[in-house]
Amino acid sequence: MITDRVKKLLPKIAAYFVTQPVVRAWVFGSYARGEESETSDIDILVDYDKSNRLSLLKICGMMIDLENILGIKVDLVENGRLKEFAVESVNHDKFLIYERANQGSF
């Protein structure tokens, strides 16, 4: 169940991703299950635009930007880089929060 708290965050996340080399994004974890608390971070699984080479600095910058925008800790995880033990759980919980309208390069 998506809580009101999550519903308020989604437009902010989508508005930010429009300006970034992100093709798709999903929320997973406690926010996806409606179990978040005041101290929970938000876990976001992302598909990056493969036509852009992203540095670790860029990804960390995106994480910091989102933390400043949302006012909570953010964990960005690239789709396909999850630990094997977590894949089933993440796939069960996740829900799509952003998909780029134009699938062309950023």
Overview features:
Beta Polymerase, domain 2, globular, 4 helices, about 110 residues
The major beta sheet can be summarized as: 4 strands, mixed
Which range does the strand content fall in? 15-25%
The best one-word shape is globular
Strand order of the largest sheet: 3-2-1-4
**Helix/strand order, N-terminal first:** HEHEHEHE
Under CATH, the homologous superfamily reads Beta Polymerase, domain 2
Low-confidence stretches: none
Name of the CATH architecture: 2-Layer Sandwich
- The helical percent reads 40-55%
Number of helices: 4
Question: What's the CATH class label?
Answer: Alpha Beta
Number of domains: 1
The Cα radius of gyration reads: 13 Å
Give the rounded overall mean pLDDT.
Answer: 91
Tell me the structural class. Answer: alpha+beta
Organism: Lepagella muris
Protein name: Nucleotidyltransferase
Description:
- With 106 residues, the chain is α+β, with helices and mostly antiparallel strands.
- The protein has one domain: 2-Layer Sandwich (Beta Polymerase, domain 2), CATH 3.30.460.10.
- Helix content is 41%, strand content 23%.
- The protein contains 4 helices and 4 strands.
- The protein has helices spanning 4-17, 30-33, 56-70, 84-93, and strands spanning 22-28, 42-48, 74-78, 95-99.
- The chain has a 4-stranded mixed sheet, with helices on both faces.
- Helix 3 links the parallel strand 2 and strand 3.
- The radius of gyration is 13 Å and the shape is globular.
- The termini are far apart.
- The model has no long low-confidence stretch (mean pLDDT 91).
- It comes from Lepagella muris.
- This is Nucleotidyltransferase.
